[in-house]
Amino acid sequence: MQLRVLVFAGTTEGREITEFLASNKIAVTACVATEYGRMVMPFNEGVEIRTGRLSQEQMEELLKDYSFVVDATHPYAEAVTKNIKAACLNSGMEYIRLLRPSINTGNVVTVEDTRAAAEFLNTVEGNVLLTTGSKELDAFTAVGDFQKRLYARVLPAPEVVDKCVKLGYKGKNLICMQGPFSHDMNLAMLKQIDARFMVTKDTGTAGGYEEKISAARAAGVTVILIERPSGPQGLTLEQLKPYLAQKTGIKLHE
């Protein structure tokens, strides 16, 4: 079978590792969950893009056509990572996890999950900038007066906007923009909404975490950090490239 690599992408690192393989003439397929994920994938003739969410069973069927798999999904995509790992195990295929290094900034309010973040917000007053994406926004509808206090920053994709509006986030409380966001942009946004709190995740350097933290400090805003779920060990982008080069015969330039 021809050497073929399947990358579960949807992140900056996923796009970069896909480009790395394709630019070295390795047949690669990138799996993304949404049309928006397809849209932001750089064009490369050597890359096949599959769009849509897959069950574990569908993943196992797909793996039959590939030599190995790279899980480059988001650090907080716990359910997807669990399915990819299980599919690899059942298929007898090596599971390769691309890890985004965590950043320890200290001086933040740490909570276990979005539900705990919502519970904390019910104990305090003031406006809140939510920078956790749209996937778990429903948990924050448990916050009292959420339609006035909470400002959700989400991707400008039609299906995302529709979901947010149905949940009750709309008008000036729905900020639809694509990152990455600079320190100045984050700071301006926090000041614009008169925020006292910002809810975020440890998305690492690629996810703009440091810029969010620095802006919050400059604005005197308290950061509520949702902890990363515990997950499998893996390799950083810098470690993964030489590892894949060894497996595929790619010659790296010194």
**For the residues shown, what is the average pLDDT?**
89
Spatial strand sequence of the major β-sheet: 6-11-10-7-8-9
Helix content: 25-40%
Beta content:
15-25%
CATH classification, class level of the largest domain: Alpha Beta
Shape annotation: elongated
Structural class: alpha/beta
Number of domains: 2
> Got a strand count?
11
CATH architectural arrangement of the largest domain: 3-Layer(aba) Sandwich
Report on this structure:
This protein is of the alpha/beta class. It folds into 2 domains: 4-101 and 230-248, NAD(P)-binding Rossmann-like Domain (Rossmann fold, 3-Layer(aba) Sandwich); 109-226, Rossmann fold (3-Layer(aba) Sandwich), CATH 3.40.50. It has helices at residues 12-23, 35-39, 56-63, 78-91, 114-121, 146-149, 158-167, 183-192, 209-219, 237-248; strands at residues 4-8, 27-32, 47-51, 68-71, 95-97, 109-111, 127-130, 150-154, 174-176, 195-201, 222-226. 35% of the residues are buried. The mean pLDDT is 89.
Which short descriptors sum up this protein?
254 residues; alpha/beta; Rossmann fold; 2 domains; six-stranded parallel β-sheet; five-stranded parallel β-sheet; 11 strands
Write the layout of secondary structure elements.
Elements: E1 4-8, H1 12-23, E2 27-32, H2 35-39, E3 47-51, H3 56-63, E4 68-71, H4 78-91, E5 95-97, E6 109-111, H5 114-121, E7 127-130, H6 146-149, E8 150-154, H7 158-167, E9 174-176, H8 183-192, E10 195-201, H9 209-219, E11 222-226, H10 237-248
Parallel strand pairs: 1-2, 1-4, 2-3, 4-5, 6-11, 7-8, 7-10, 8-9, 10-11
